[in-house]
Amino acid sequence: MKPFKQILVFLFVCSSVLFAKPTIYILATGGTIAGAGDSEIKSSYSAGAVTVDKLIAAVPAINEIAAIKGEQISSIGSQEMNNQVWLKLSKRVNELLAQKDVDGIVVTHGTDTMEESAYFLHLTVKSKKPVVFVGAMRSGTSMSADGPMNLYNAVNVAINKESAGKGVLVVMNDEIHSAREVTKTLTTSVQTFASPNSGKIGTVFYGNVEYFMQPLKAHTVNSEFDVSKLQSLPRVDILFAHPEDSTVFVEASVNASAKGIIHAGMGNGNLFPSTQDALAKAVKEGVVVVRSSRVTNGATTLEGEVDDKAFGFIAANSLNAQKARVLLMLGLTKTNNPKELQKMFLKY
Ligand code: GLU
To answer: Which residue ranges does the chain devote to CATH 3.40.50.1170?
Structure first.
């Protein structure tokens, strides 16, 4: 080969390495971001009707910043989310991120249970590479659909070097949230996601990413939970407290062989007296009981009005009931010792 030709080949190889686009997998699960309806001004639509290829084709700008690959994990509204999809999704994310040539993952998901799926992956993904959940409040056929900009922003977050090591992230409406903290706060608004106890950790505006916080609770590579060999997850129910509460729900859970119960209590996780007795009895029968709260802000603390030691209850700390359920399901795959489980509720 002539020297001039050699130099050209060398420059070509260098530039293709230096300027190679990062590879991002978009794993689609369904939800409104993949929803389609008959009218752009009506709120009715079917979630999950649009395939991952069509989702990607609808936002050509993402191909300019990354080499995009798509996979369909499920096609469901996230109110249909279940253990099998969680396990499938987490295993696939781990498989992909273990590959050298994969730089990050974007998961498209319905917003109803996004906080739980994102937290499940936050605790079970074994990689520092970015994993970003994204959804939409308006379907693709709706006027002012929010999905395309959310997806563009999510891919920008996934390719951003600063996103590594922050655990699983949720990107919606120009905001970046940690999976541990984020929750859906409004039933229909595009500004539905918030992190009531900590605030958002960053913003993403037309693809420009800016972080100003770092999640500090243990996650991903520092998590002890491993789903690689799991085919199922233990049953954990949530009971919602109210005045004149009834014990029948506790009894129904125990009879249905629940391994754990999350009690979304009043205030600082307080219980109606007969429910408290029924749950104390459930603990004696081997069911793990976690006190959480039906209040959206703050923590459920040990040593409040409830004598946790006497009853054998666990306090959920600042996890809401639906996230406490995720942690307890994973915790129960390791132990059913309440002391060990309580440590997990302070750590994760
Ligand atoms: N129920 C749907 C879901 O969670 C609608 C919510 C949404 O995606 O915005 O998939």
So the answer is: 20-222
Query: Which residue is associated with the tokens 């750590």?
Result: 347
Atom of ligand 1 nearest to the CA of 48: 10
- Which of helix, strand or coil describes residue 87? helix
Which tokens hold the place of 106? 């974007």
Q: How many A from CA of 109 to the centre of ligand 1?
A: 8
Alpha helices in the chain (DSSP H): 3-18, 52-57, 61-65, 83-97, 114-124, 147-159, 248-255, 273-284, 308-311, 321-331, 338-347
Q: Which amino acid is at 170?
A: V
pLDDT tens across 324-348, in order?
999 999 999 999 999 999 999 999 9
**CATH no. for 236-347:** 3.40.50.40
Q: What is the mean pLDDT of each run of 10 residues along the chain (348 residues)?
A: 68 65 97 80 76 95 98 96 98 98 98 98 98 96 94 98 98 98 97 98 98 97 98 98 98 98 98 98 98 97 95 98 98 98 98
pLDDT digits (tens, 9 = 90+) for 178-193: 999 999 999 999 999 9
CATH 3.40.50.1170 for domain 20-222: yes
Q: What is the pTM of this model?
A: 0.94
- pLDDT the model gives residue 16: 61
Cα-to-centroid distance, 136 and ligand 1 (Å): 8
What is the pLDDT at residue 18? Answer: 62
Q: Locate 27 and state its tokens.
A: 């794993």
Site to probe by mutation for ligand 1, drawn from 78, 81, 133, 185 as the one with most ligand atoms within 8 Å of Cβ, is 78
**CATH 3.40.50.40 in the chain, residues?**
236-347
333 is catalytic: no
- Which residues contact ligand 1 via a Cβ below 6 A? 31-32, 47, 77-79, 110-112, 135-137
